[in-house]
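--- STAGE predict ---
source: upstream dedup step, 1 unique chain passed
mode: sequence only
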Amino acid sequence: MKRSEINAVVAEAKSAFERHGWTLPPNPKWDVTDFGLGDFSKFGLLLVNLAEQPEYCEKLMYVRHRQVTPRHFHRAKKEDIICRWGRLAIELPSEKSQRLQINGEWREVSPNETIILKAGERITLTRDVLHAFWADSEYAIVGEVSTANDDVNDNFFENQLVGRFSEIEEDEPETVILIGET
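--- STAGE serialize ---
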């Protein structure tokens, strides 16, 4: 990714967060990725780490319309994904039904079902649940509350070409320092 592209999406996300009443903590940790696929508009995600503790983590994410976070799962992390604004589509590819909590209630999810979360709705994803997501609206603001987070060792992508972090081409000065750059 070009640094100019990172700077532009950070400015876009900051503006969206502000419009919808999300005040970020001082000096938040930013993460912008195209998953090493080279097309941020198609495959990408902006995350802000709000809390990182040994026991838990909280993130705020900005997802553009149809911008996919590729199919992946976690072996250690359990997470609640919460749509804070807009609509979030969550694809749950599986050959069999799964029993998951949606809005705190257990529900049988059909094989290969896509769940649409509206603002305020949430899904709890347990370990080893394969999932992908994207905004089903102009954009979505998404929260994540999870057990301890390990982005380096606990993201397992279905497509082996997908990587968690992007290589950055420095074409202008950074406006924020990304995770891993400190």
